[in-house]
Automatic annotation (TrEMBL):
Keywords: Aminopeptidase, Hydrolase, Manganese, Protease. The keyword Manganese applies. This is Leucyl aminopeptidase family protein. InterPro entries: Leucine_aapep/pepB, Macro_dom-like, Peptidase_M17_C, Peptidase_M17_N_1. Residues 306-313 form the Cytosol aminopeptidase domain.
């Protein structure tokens, strides 16, 4: 059964009941229950704390579920644990509408089973009287699953060619136009993308993937995703512990592909330009070196101080290309810096924005859909850290201070003046499981960006 079947309109089908109990009213609710139900609640240690639940016995072989939640509307993840743990079958809510929690219900049943046999358990189906919200939840769930799947795939099975194939499927599905630049054309036109990826093995060559869609008369927007399909660190090689998760260094590209899919499926009134610089940062005799001076599409020169600061290099050329068509908005997603994780941990994408109205809209959307972002400063005073003695700039300051900020300032050098731009330095990974969010690849910032675009262009 597909995810589309996990949410169905309520037409009176047979289903077990999930009773929603407000935490503040738990004591009164419990006192009103028959003795058998109170005993079941005690045996299962349902305390009234939000998220606690119990199976309640009914007549004969009948039973229902009680779930304690915060007062007010259900949140995105309130039903996720039940979706993971309840027996297969159909359920309907009593005492509340599912609303935003539909998404958590579907994502609680996400499984990545490419490399192992499916667990074989049946689906949990939620019946709802909100058909419009069903459709919206399923679209967001599908986009989130796309990000999770792509990030979870091992690097041996997902390289630049596979990212190109993903973009091609999107283009074919929505009648977009796909352009791929590689080889000599990439070396001449996008020298930083070429340089970072030139040491990759045959079949995994670097490329710039572009997809255009929509009416040229509509406002032009650019969505960019960092597509480093594996990052060894290059000659500044990572230790094994730092390399372990580097299959996920294309998480920005996964976010960009998923967001582009949402934009096209909803037929937003935009001219979409999706750009994915796709590379593998490998070690070989022709790998780029510390101290090399790199040319760029913009004409600036960059002294390479660290081959492990490669993501900003490929994004620089992609940002330059995006700006050439004068978009009214640029969004980029990248698993860019460890400094962002040190500052904010895994859950909060470090968000840099050069335009106050865009920042306000993006952060408001993040709060509305419970997909948190945390704004970080484009602090002009740190721009001098990018000075080079021999070139226009370095890619990574030697000091190590403010690493997420200086990376964003590097990217800003390639954004056209006056163009609203947001950069999301996202982790794209869950180091520990939470309800509806298994350990592994995940979409962090996707729903916020989509809510902002939908509000702006729908």
């Amino acid at each position: 059964m597909s995810a589309r079947d996990l949410l169905q309109p309520d037409r009176g089908q047979a289903a077990r009941t999930i009773e929603i109990v407000a935490a503040t009213g738990f004591a009164a609710w419990l006192n009103a229950q028959p003795p058998r139900a109170r005993a079941a609640v005690a045996a299962q240690k349902m305390s009234g704390k939000p998220g606690s639940s119990a199976i309640l016995p009914g007549d004969s072989d009948d039973w229902s579920v009680a779930l304690a939640v915060d007062d007010g509307a259900l949140g995105v993840w309130d039903l996720a644990r039940l979706a993971e743990t309840l027996p297969e079958g159909a359920y309907r809510l009593s005492g509340a509408e599912a609303g935003a929690a539909m998404l958590g219900w579907v994502l609680g049943q996400y499984r990545f089973d490419r490399y192992r046999k499916p667990e074989g358990e049946g689906p949990r189906i939620l019946l709802s009287g909100e058909p419009a919200r069903i459709a919206d939840a399923l679209k967001i769930a599908s986009a989130t699953a796309r990000v999770r799947d792509l990030v979870n795939i091992g690097a041996s099975d997902l390289g630049p060619a596979e990212l190109e194939a993903e973009a091609r499927m999107l283009a074919d599905a929505h009648h977009g136009v796909l352009t791929v630049t590689k080889g000599d054309a990439l070396a001449k036109g996008y020298p930083m993308i070429h340089t970072v990826g030139q040491a990759a093995a045959k079949g995994r060559e670097p490329r710039l993937i572009e997809l255009e869609w929509g009416d040229p008369k509509h406002p032009r927007i650019a969505i960019i995703g960092k597509g480093v399909c594996f990052d060894s660190g290059g000659l500044d090689i990572k230790p094994s512990s730092g390399m372990r998760l580097m299959k996920k260094d294309m998480g920005g590209a996964a976010h960009a592909l998923a967001l582009a899919g949402l934009v096209m499926a909803a037929r937003l009134k935009v001219r979409l330009h999706l750009l994915i610089p796709a590379v593998e940062n490998s070690v070989a005799g022709n790998a780029f070196r510390p101290g090399d001076v790199l040319a760029t599409r913009k004409g600036l020169t960059v002294e390479n101080t660290n081959t492990d600061a490669e993501g900003r290099l490929i994004l620089g050329d992609a940002l330059t290309r995006a700006g050439e068509d004068k978009p009214e908005l640029i969004l980029d997603f990248a698993t860019l810096t460890g400094a962002a994780r040190t500052a904010l941990g895994p859950d909060l994408p470090a968000t840099f924005v050069n335009d106050e109205p865009l920042a306000e809209a993006l952060l408001a959307a993040a709060r509305e859909v419970d997909d948190p972002l945390w704004r970080m400063p484009l602090w002009d005073g740190y721009d001098e850290m990018l000075k080079s003695d021999i070139a226009d700039m370095v890619n990574a300051p030697d000091s190590g201070f403010a690493g997420a900020v200086t990376a964003a300032l590097f990217l800003r050098r390639f954004v056209p003046d006056g163009t609203p731009w947001a950069h999301l330095d996202t982790f794209a990974w869950r180091p520990a499981a939470r309800p509806g969010r298994p350990k592994g690849g995940d979409a962090l910032g996707l729903r916020a960006a989509w809510a902002m675009l939908k509000a702006r262009y729908c």
